[in-house]
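Newbie here. four chains, one complex. Structure please?
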Amino acid sequence: MEINLNADLGESFGAYQMGNDSLLLDVVKSANVACGFHAGDPWIMTQTVEMALPKGVSVGAHPAFPDLQGFGRRAMQLSPKELEASILYQVGALDGISMAMGARVTHVKPHGALNNMACEDTDLAKVVAEAIRDYSRDMILLAPALSELAKAGTAAGLPVALEVFSDRAYTDSGHLVSRSQPGAVLHKSEECVAHVLRMVEQGGIVSINGKCLPTPFHSVCVHGDNLHAAETANKVRLGLEAAGCTIVTLPEIDLS
Amino acid sequence: MEINLNADLGESFGAYQMGNDSLLLDVVKSANVACGFHAGDPWIMTQTVEMALPKGVSVGAHPAFPDLQGFGRRAMQLSPKELEASILYQVGALDGISMAMGARVTHVKPHGALNNMACEDTDLAKVVAEAIRDYSRDMILLAPALSELAKAGTAAGLPVALEVFSDRAYTDSGHLVSRSQPGAVLHKSEECVAHVLRMVEQGGIVSINGKCLPTPFHSVCVHGDNLHAAETANKVRLGLEAAGCTIVTLPEIDLS
Amino acid sequence: MEINLNADLGESFGAYQMGNDSLLLDVVKSANVACGFHAGDPWIMTQTVEMALPKGVSVGAHPAFPDLQGFGRRAMQLSPKELEASILYQVGALDGISMAMGARVTHVKPHGALNNMACEDTDLAKVVAEAIRDYSRDMILLAPALSELAKAGTAAGLPVALEVFSDRAYTDSGHLVSRSQPGAVLHKSEECVAHVLRMVEQGGIVSINGKCLPTPFHSVCVHGDNLHAAETANKVRLGLEAAGCTIVTLPEIDLS
Amino acid sequence: MEINLNADLGESFGAYQMGNDSLLLDVVKSANVACGFHAGDPWIMTQTVEMALPKGVSVGAHPAFPDLQGFGRRAMQLSPKELEASILYQVGALDGISMAMGARVTHVKPHGALNNMACEDTDLAKVVAEAIRDYSRDMILLAPALSELAKAGTAAGLPVALEVFSDRAYTDSGHLVSRSQPGAVLHKSEECVAHVLRMVEQGGIVSINGKCLPTPFHSVCVHGDNLHAAETANKVRLGLEAAGCTIVTLPEIDLS
């Protein structure tokens, strides 16, 4: 079975360092690269793509609300036209940087508050999906399994890669358990590995109560905010490989 | 004889209006569109391209230093790597917005202080030209005639369109007369028209002292900061047409 | 009877011009000066205060959400701590610029989405009022009559100046008629003058249906976005003076 | 003998962490707090002042060029009026935040490229010093010993505290050895301690060649970019105390 691992990368800015990109790029096969609105700047973006390519990691855009101070985590109300333009701007900017290295952006995953809102709000999801479709009908939309965003991507005719989270617990309805609840975030490496393998084995999202919501998924999202997280990401990869999975890039996955 | 008219457009930002884009788009055939660093934002960029396309105006990127407060007019010291990345970012961003409308960016013209510095500084000119070349070998560089930037474009293998200014006087060495000098800017419409026609007839830049510096040129830059400027731009066009010129887009000009 | 006229000023930014500050400063007696978050920059702020002082116009801070692109008109979710700090930052910045000219900021009026939200949301209003109170117990809060913000100001022990709008219609419950409704904005000068005089005569807010909600008020807000608006502002002033009112600065009004 | 220790603090931004503020605040007695232009945001500034006050550390403003992406380290050309306004804005903003906690900004130290330029350029130094003087004649200017900035501060009538650097070598003319030269930065704790004590004993700046340039100085600048630097700062403090110095805040030093 082929599966993808993805992570958010290139979230440094100017003199500010964030994350363990170098370590994570040895673990994941697809990188969601910040595009300058919530994090990243042109030179950081360039360095991130330069690191990813020789490691065989596919490059994706990680567009966000224009909110560096809030790291794109604060809800903002953009008009549909503004939002569409902002997504095209960010995807194009990263694609421009990639093209100069002979590569292309092959997927898009919205960031932070934009992603959260697009997973719940059908209208917003449609704006996001159609902006990506207007950029390129071949662009892969990386969206959480069972989300409105994933549905909107399919409706727009995009190839949609469905993701699950390695370190987040799910409710019985398939949503992420709110961070304010106990158990929302899995802190131990073994928990994360077990959580992911359970979902692979059962063929769906497994909730905090053990309920399985059957759904295909193509990618597992891991994090690298600190050293422990990067190590956990690696253990998730090793666990998947031990279970017989091959870790591939998003464009290598059959999404038809 | 075929010649191009170009102007800087899309320089509004959010609630701030600047220029007379609608008027100028009936005059020029190529638009240098601000890319969000000195002016413009994603939605302004979108609206500008949306207005340009049905009028048969070709779309160019107008990248600048990241300085909205200074409108890109202040000298900044970016490292070559940062500058290269910033140009790719801006060109790609506008191209992303254009692609969603089925169009492409076909030329690049640096803005303000970046343009001024690249016209004088051989090393900086090389960075700018090679960034554009790395984006696409078919991208037209729109650069002042006789400038270091134009030379660097040719050296990088780019198609280079040479421009002259309709409302600026030149020194005997082919540089713009400094704005601090009397006569630097031509304020009357008739002066601008006569200045341009003189250069067309003599086949080169004609200085404030009447000296001709022979050089091909392919485009005339006009301005539309106020209503008078937009009207002058139109008179320059009418004057060129009366002199037998056909006004075309940059991609239509033979730059080989 | 003494009454104040106030307007939003200093909303230019860098090369971008907005409003008719010079005209309005001959009409109003208190200026709400943008502080760099939604509009204004340090040099614009300086020029605005420099123009206001010799005309006997009192200077107020007009703090906003950090959203230049959206002109502070988009709802944002800042934590109470961030919001408090942002208000203190902006008020202090303008006060610093004013102090260098021997003047002080004497009032604060929140801008745009921040003001709208603080007029409805009791908790947010409390954060705003207490931030101002922590800056100075003598700082006048300029708040819409009958708003939660005004109540919060009084509860915080601040001197509160209540304002009504010259060009906006009110509902029977004292809120502004939504801009999406017909009649929300009064466009004709005579309508604005009549609206203001009616409220002065009846001693309260007069709704679009003619209902009077009795409330003291100390200031009338006028606008100067275009030449017509600035002329209307002047007619409101003349109308008030003809009705026997003396136009004074906010600090001259007895708010006890 | 009384002497001050100062450090740059509050250089985090939003989700981005920088420096070891908590450690350094136990070592220094005066904090140069970033004001949002090169680093810092209103909430970071608030937290920094909140940490400094109970530790008896005096608060200073660390104004910079408006360049978050370049961390204020890139030369920018602001007009004198813009620069003056930008300094007043930043000092006022931090003072506003401090006032809400019952404290005041008591010194100003320019940051990065602005500081470097003001140490060399007499005209720029005058603009900086006079902006601070216009804010308050009692504001202490913290400037490198033997710099143009220090001279400009004295000429403007400001109390000027002269600083030396604990981890930087000096040329025989009293300038910092360029970072591109070997030995420019002292990396070992013992070297830093010895360097500082040598200057204290000899009553002046001691160059890399052992030459002494006699000058009073009131403060030693230490850094805390990493854990090692913070530990070195502490050793410098212990060394000074062992040599009989008392470490005090800038306002406690007699600058007359």
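Moderator note: Chain D is about 40% helix and 15% strand. Chain D has a mean pLDDT of 97. Thread marked as resolved.
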